[in-house]
């Protein structure tokens, strides 16, 4: 099996590790997470240190790295890890849980996480660095930009367009042909019937733009940290 290092040992990291194991393609040699003590065990895998270790691991022959830090409205930490991995020369594979169902013609970049029970319909195009979280359904012809997160249980109907760095909160529905432009956040449980412009915070049923979405704001603290 190919040797791989996981960057991020939090809750999302545990989901990613579980899916990596389900695919039986990679041997996980350790976790890099500067926020945890060296030697901490996460899902049975040892934390080796921070991502400063990446160049040394690459020299030792570990050439696969996975972005396993989650994003709740701010994709910047994932983007930074992506750029660091690319800078050192790592290959960043897509991690697709074995329970996900993908149409034969789905296209995607690299570094995406496709979680348990996700369904991707015909002709779906996915960028790079996205999270399609547990049980999300992405219908035919939908296009999703880089570093966007579709949270658990959301449904994107046919031919939806989603820009880059978007967060779609859990349990949301976006009806067919709607466009959500870049850098916007859709709150949990929203019903998106009309286009959402860029850099907007929108929520509700039907979803309304309620303000500017500021990526620097820590939305993970809203209504309890996930
Ligand atoms: C595996 C995982 O766990 S992945 C992570 C999944 N979790 C998420 O995606 C969380 C998504 N976050 C949300 O939905 C948040 O509520 C946000 C980001 C939309 C809003 O957060 P904040 O701006 O901090 O709003 P705040 O919590 O202060 O609420 C402000 C008002 O908006 C309302 N509101 C907030 N979110 C929503 C929503 N999703 N739908 C309807 N109303 C909402 C609140 O009830 C409140 O109304 P009030 O003033 O009448 O009491």
Q: Could you walk me through the main structural features you see in this protein, from its secondary elements to its overall organization?
A:
The chain is 14% helix and 30% strand. With 226 residues, it is α/β, with parallel strands linked by helices. The strands form four sheets. An eight-stranded mixed beta sheet has the order 6-9-12-15-18-21-23-24, with helices on one face. The chain has a six-stranded parallel beta sheet with strand order 7-10-13-16-19-22, with no helix packed on it. Strands 3-4-2-1-5 form a five-stranded mixed beta sheet. The radius of gyration is 17 Å and the shape is globular. The model has no long low-confidence stretch (mean pLDDT 95). The chain binds acetyl coenzyme *A. Substrate binds at residue 73. Keywords: Repeat, Transferase. GO terms for molecular function: transferase activity. This is Serine acetyltransferase.
């Amino acid at each position: 099996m190919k040797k791989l290092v996981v960057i991020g040992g939090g809750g999302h990291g545990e989901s990613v590790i579980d899916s990596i194991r389900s695919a039986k393609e990679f041997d996980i040699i350790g976790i890099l997470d500067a926020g945890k003590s060296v030697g901490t065990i996460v899902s049975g895998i040892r934390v080796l240190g921070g991502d400063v270790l990446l160049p040394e691991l690459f020299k030792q022959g570990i050439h696969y790295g996975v972005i396993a830090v989650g994003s709740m409205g701010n994709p910047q930490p994932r983007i930074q890890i992506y750029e660091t991995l690319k800078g050192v020369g790592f290959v960043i594979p897509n991690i697709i849980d074995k329970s996900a169902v993908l149409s034969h013609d789905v296209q995607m970049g690299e570094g995406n996480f496709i979680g348990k029970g996700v369904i991707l319909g015909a002709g779906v195009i996915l960028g790079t660095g996205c999270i399609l979280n547990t049980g999300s359904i992405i219908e035919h012809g939908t296009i999703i930009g880089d570093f966007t997160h579709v949270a658990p249980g959301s449904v994107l109907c046919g031919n939806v367009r989603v820009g880059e760095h978007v967060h779609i909160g859990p349990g949301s529905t976006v009806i067919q042909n709607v466009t959500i432009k870049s850098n916007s956040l859709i709150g949990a449980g929203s019903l998106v019937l009309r286009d959402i412009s860029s850099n907007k915070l929108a929520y509700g049923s039907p979803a309304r733009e309620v303000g500017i979405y500021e990526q620097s704001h820590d939305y993970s603290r809203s209504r309890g940290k996930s």
